[in-house]
Design goal:
The protein is mainly alpha-helical. It has a domain of 115 residues: Ribosomal protein L17 (50s Ribosomal Protein L17, Chain: A, Alpha-Beta Complex). The chain contains seven helices and three strands, in the order H-E-H-H-H-E-E-H-H-H. It has a three-stranded antiparallel β-sheet. Strand 2 and strand 3 form a beta hairpin.
Length: 178
């Protein structure tokens, strides 16, 4: 799943920063998927979908990224080594596609892929606004004095007391008879 997510990010942003070992493994998978994208037929799309389960991204890979590499026979990605990470000393690298798109295209691609989350967020905001409007429209009700009802616990206690009194009276009556 980690490699799939790395490849997904690579195809969306065309450049990712990760460790060298992860970059090398993600490179293998990404180049394999680009080979399928160059074919751009139904079976190739299904193979890509096995690894990247997003229909929009699969269509972008086949329509935009695959044709860029039509004249190449491998070497679709490159790895730049950055040096050790400060926290744990792991070797860092940048994995990127050789043929890059314009920044505006990458930004539009990102917005298209992440559209689902943005739409859901807007719906929640709209619902909150509607609730607030409804609350403002409601007029406060006039306060009337309400007599408190006896709680069920008090009723139970009084019933118990009555039952105890009746038992006591019955016992006294039996003693008196004897």
């Amino acid at each position: 799943m980690m490699l799939r997510n790395l490849c997904r990010s690579l195809f969306i942003f065309e450049k990712i920063k990760t460790t060298v070992t992860k970059a090398k493994e993600a490179r293998r998978l990404a180049e394999h998927l680009i080979e399928f994208a160059k074919r751009n037929d139904l079976s190739a799309k299904r193979m890509i979908y096995r690894f990247i389960s997003d229909h929009k991204l699969v269509s972008i890979i086949c329509a935009e990224i695959g044709p860029k590499f039509a004249n190449r026979h491998g070497g679709y990605t490159r790895i730049y080594r950055l040096g050790p990470r400060l926290g744990d000393g792991a070797e860092m690298a940048i994995l990127e596609l050789v043929e890059k798109s314009e920044p505006a295209t990458i930004d539009n691609r990102r917005k298209l892929i992440e559209r689902r989350e943005l739409v859901e967020g807007e719906d929640k905001k709209e619902k909150k606004e509607k609730k607030e409007k409804v609350k403002k429209e409601k007029k406060p009700k006039e306060k009337t004095e309400v007599k408190p009802k006896p709680t069920p616990a008090k009723e139970k206690i009084s019933k118990k007391e009555k039952a105890k009194k009746e038992k006591r009276e019955k016992k006294k009556a039996k003693k008196d008879r004897k």
